[in-house]
């Protein structure tokens, strides 16, 4: 039997493992990954922008009336962060600018952390809703690891450092989000979750249309646009997968269910596992 604290952490660790598998695969072919890092970045741009438009933004608007404000805050916050890093760490001869990797990695890390929060909240509703949400989210964990590693290689980071930074950003943040939020999941209001979704979407949109899209101008059009199209197709496959649906309303119902219980009453029962 899994408790409502253990289940999201377990699935967060499974998500981290899936991400790590992607990391190991590209790390073993680091030279090839570095050579094609720009193509990976363009594919990532297509995938992240599509997921933001089709899934994250609608979810945010469903949960929060202030979602448009937080969406804009995430987008322009990413712009400010990107340029602040460029000012603090100016480009030097022979070295690539730090901000081409820093901002995308922050975006991936924040998105993965929020995924962990979603695990905690949906498992609080029921084991079934948590399971369906987790399976849907885990689908995009594998490419997140690949993308994070390719971003670091494009910035000229060594293989070992690229692996560990990508692991911390794309893999470790998911169970961290579940672990941090699990004890307080019943206090997380839909409005707050919607704001987090919206900020994450805004940041991802900035990264997708800015730093990750930058190589398009120096890549052959057919190759560059083909990479973006591949990312869009991958996102569509993830979004349209049958297990990806069914949890759209769960983050609202968890609070409705919680209000039906007095303090100290039984928590969600996962004994059906």
Automatic annotation (TrEMBL):
Keywords annotated in UniProt: Membrane, Transmembrane, Transmembrane helix
GO cellular component term of the entry, any: membrane
Principal subcellular localisation of the protein: membrane
GO molecular function: zinc ion transmembrane transporter activity
Transmembrane segments: 6-27, 39-57, 69-89, 101-124, 130-151, 163-186, 192-213, 225-243
Membrane topology, from the record: Multi-pass membrane protein
One of the Pfam families matching this protein, by short name: Zip
Compartments reported by the entry: Membrane
Region (Disordered) location: 250-273
Name recorded for this polypeptide: Zinc ABC transporter permease
Species whose genome carries this gene: Henriciella barbarensis
